[in-house]
Specification:
Layout (H helix, E strand, L loop, with lengths): L10 H5 L11 H18 L7 H20 L3 H13 L19 H17 L11 H17 L7 H4 L5 H5 L1 H14 L4 H18 L5 H18 L9 H8 L5 H7 L2 E13 L3 E6 L5 E5 L14 E10 L2 E4 L4 E4 L18 H14 L5 E4 L2 H11 L6 H6 L6 E6 L3 E5 L16 H7 L2 H4 L6 H9 L17 H10 L1 H9 L1 H5 L3
Antiparallel strand pairs: 1-2, 1-4, 2-3, 4-5, 4-6, 7-8, 8-9
Helix pairs in contact: 2-3, 2-6, 3-5, 5-6, 5-10, 9-10, 10-11, 12-13
Pfam families: DUF3843
Organism: Candidatus Avibacteroides avistercoris
Protein name: DUF3843 family protein
Length: 509
């Protein structure tokens, strides 16, 4: 039986990676290139087990990378520049000469884009690590590079793309910038692989929470949650916030660069109107310790606002020293019975003295070491009651009754952190739970599984070589502990950024 015909990539698919839907002069070349790359990849039969739609999408990403370099769009340049600033080399994993010509495509670049995109699109959802040096992927990278290199000198520039972020009107007017960033976060070729999981999660939240809403209402709610997301969710292979990507793409001396760095985002909260003048409205956040002043003209129904009574529900973004509404505004007031359940979370700095005291207690009880290991929750509770003289915590015992192999870790500015099910991976003279074979096979989990290990603890373990046996899969040719260990520890911070994403930053701020 003949295999079904695979439809060629269409202009519409190419436009999904661009912030416009009218044809640019260069589009025909890059659609044709996308199809050439796609056909070459599929006909190689090297990755037949990979979903054909994923291959199709990644072929588009590689063509967009070529367009980026030829047009000097700046996204790829921003990535390699930031990676080099962080880690002293051009790319993670893949060797590349320091004097590599950044104005031409490189086979190592293509290899990385294919690996990163497939890891995000197919590996992460299935909780699998795709080895960076998988033979089939490196071979495909070489085949695609040959096709690209043959015609690169004739490749056209996309002037429309190049002018996007350099247009003064865009960076001087927040509504225009926000419109562009909605595309950038969701569909820019180097960003899209990392954000699709979060966008789908947002969609599920809306579908579950507002089952009885109309499609129009659901779209409005989705818009609101996405405006929060694009400014507060780290994205791309380096898990940077959009403002940092924009700054990296801009000339450091340009006016736009300083404006981008000044972006500050506040997610959707309940804000109590505490003061109203002819020009401004003062808002006090009901969930966080934050007061902001917003231009009165921002609110269409400003005349209906009442001091001390009106409550505004929305998110805000500070741009060019001005607070702007980022999503959808809802209004209620203090008579709403649901408002009574809202409690303000105290700023963490208020607990500085408490954290310091707890840290000192822990260090005294644990022979001066900030880390301790326990087999089960009963041992943890015994440490709390016998060593720290705390009352027994029945709630903690119930919540963690099915967990094992605990680590307690103390820091002066954060108190005590707890991690479960990872102590067997940690090599330490005081850790009786360590198992070498488990450490080799599963020690990579704290680097790649969100919420498994606080980033502060992970950094401590790595700095003290306590996860020495942990391995990252290398080439798919069988387990090689030595190669896997080197690959992981040479690139551990990048791996943690890319896999942990928002959890990489969660404890660092």
């Amino acid at each position: 039986m003949d295999k079904p015909t695979i439809n060629p990539i269409q202009l519409k698919e190419w436009h999904e990676l661009h912030p416009y839907n009218t044809k640019a002069e260069s589009d025909d070349y890059y659609v044709e290139l996308s199809n050439t790359l796609f056909d070459t990849w599929v006909k190689s039969h090297l990755t037949d087990k990979i979903n054909i739609n994923a291959i199709r999408r990644v072929s588009l990403y590689v063509a967009a990378y070529v367009e980026d370099i030829k047009s000097d769009f700046g996204l790829w340049k921003a990535f390699i520049t930031r990676h080099c600033a962080l880690y002293g080399r051009r790319l993670p994993f893949f060797a590349s000469a320091a004097d590599t010509n950044a104005s031409r495509p490189q086979v190592t670049d293509i290899n990385f884009i294919i690996w990163y995109s497939l890891q995000e699109l197919t590996g992460k959802p299935s909780h699998q690590i795709i080895p960076p040096f998988l033979n089939s992927l490196t071979t495909v990278s070489g085949l695609l590079y040959e096709k690209i290199n043959k015609t690169f000198d004739k490749a056209p520039c996309n002037k429309r793309l190049t002018r996007l972020f350099s247009n003064p009107q865009v960076y001087k007017e927040f509504p225009l910038l926000k419109q562009l960033l909605n595309w950038f976060f969701s569909h820019a070729y180097l960003i899209e692989p990392s954000t699709q999981e979060r966008i789908m999660m947002n969609h599920r939240i809306i579908m579950d929470k507002f089952k009885n809403a109309t499609d129009e209402q659901k779209n409005m709610f989705m818009y609101g949650i996405m405006q929060d997301t694009i400014f507060t969710y780290p994205c791309g292979p380096l898990a940077l916030y959009v403002k940092d990507w924009l700054h990296a793409m801009a000339d450091d001396t340009a006016e736009a660069a300083s404006r981008y760095l000044g972006i500050e985002a506040l997610q959707t909260y309940h804000w109590l109107v505490t003061d109203i003048t002819d020009e401004t409205v003062t808002l006090d956040c009901m969930q966080r310790e934050r007061v902001i002043e917003v231009a009165k003209s921002t609110f269409k129904d400003a005349d209906k606002l009442a001091k001390g009574k009106s409550i505004i529900i929305c998110g805000f973004v500070k741009y060019d020293q001005t607070w702007n509404v980022s999503g959808v505004i809802s209004l209620t007031d203090t008579d709403n019975p649901q408002i009574k359940s809202i409690k303000k979370v105290a700023d963490r700095s208020r607990f500085a003295d408490v954290h310091r005291k707890v840290y000192q207690q822990f260090m005294e009880a644990n022979n001066g070491k900030p880390i301790a290991f326990f087999g089960d929750i009963e041992e943890v509770n015994k440490f709390f009651t016998d060593k720290l003289k705390w009352p027994a915590n029945d709630n903690l015992a119930t919540q963690l009754s099915k967990s094992r192999n605990f680590i307690l870790f103390a820091e002066e500015d954060k108190g005590i952190m707890i991690a479960t099910n990872i102590a067997e991976y940690v090599k330490d003279a005081d850790n009786p739970l360590y198992k070498k074979e488990e450490a080799e096979r599963k020690g990579v989990f704290p680097f790649i599984n969100k919420g498994m290990c606080p980033i502060d603890l992970l950094e401590y373990l790595e700095d003290n070589d306590m996860l020495h046996d942990a391995c990252f899969l290398t080439d798919g040719k069988g387990f090689n502990a030595e190669k896997g260990q080197k690959l992981l520890h040479d690139n551990w911070d990048f791996i943690a950024r890319m896999f942990l994403n928002e959890f990489y930053w969660d404890e660092m701020h």
